[in-house]
Design brief:
The strands form 2 sheets. An 8-stranded mixed sheet has the order 1-4-5-6-7-8-9-10, sandwiched between helices. Strands 2-3 form a two-stranded antiparallel sheet. By secondary structure, it is of the alpha/beta class. The chain is globular. It folds into 2 domains: 9-149, no CATH class; 158-302, no CATH class. It has 10 helices and 10 strands. Helix 4 links the parallel strand 6 and strand 7 (145-149). The longest helix has 25 residues, at 164-188. Helix 3 (96-112) packs across helix 4 and helix 7 (220-233) runs antiparallel to helix 8. Residues 102-137 form the Fungal lipase-type domain. InterPro entries: AB_hydrolase_fold (IPR029058), Fungal_lipase-type (IPR002921). Keywords: Hydrolase. This is GDSL esterase/lipase At4g10955-like.
Amino acid sequence: NRLRPKALAPPWWEYFHFRLIQVLVDSETNLTLAPFSNTHFQIPISTTPVNQNQNQNQNPSKYVIAFRDTIAQKDSRSQDYKLDLRVIRNSLHTSSRFHIAVQAVQSIVHNYGPSDIWLAGHSLGSAIALTIERDMVIKMGIHLETYLFNPPFASLPIEKIKNEKLKHGIRFAHSVVKAGLAAAVKSQRPESPHKSDHFTILSEWVPYLFVNPSDPICSEYVGYFQHREKMVAIGAEEIERIATQNSIRSIISTAIGNDSEPSHLLPSAFVTVNSSPSPDFKRAHGIDQWWKPDLQCNFKLYQF
């Protein structure tokens, strides 16, 4: 939301030889989604891939489509806050901003091919990127390399509990309840055959998640993936297989006849956790934490 010479983003993409080629605008609200973030960047020459897990000989993307976080400015915050609520209600896919973003992504994929394109986003922007790519994987079989910074996880912040035994007990009970409710609803309202396959289809796509355990917005991803491993270790794999695909909200929605799939639940991901001290919410949630030179991280691949 800054213009040159105060803009912070341009020096970063220019350093890596990217150039801005388009800014997306939400036509319904006449809001610029992000002057220097909700954009396509074109790269004219090769650079070193940012992904540590990639083969160093692999070519980086030629295009990055990045989506910004909520901006607390008077002319945009009300619309952004409404989208934040849509994330919680799992209805982001019904917003005008989502449809504009989908059209932009599909257009550039059609013109240049999926192998040359990366998606990226921070917080609300990562929720948009995740929902777009999830939809494209299921409906079109298109896998775009996706980087999600502080992606929202719509759930109670169980990860904030310090007592590990209590935390695991709550997660175990939560999984049992979800699996039981999902089975009960399925017996009364059989889900569509396509819906039951979606999680399996998504398991072949591995997005890159960057999360901070001190950030209540994204910290549940840490526990979500770790808990799956613990459930397998104690022999409760079948319970967790059902529970990990459902949220309480999606189960209730299905029970009343409205099919709903929680878009934030992922079968597979390469998760990077910031283990550096984060004394307050601003530091734990801010995008700037990920480019600090003294950043301490742990990372792990989780596969369904």
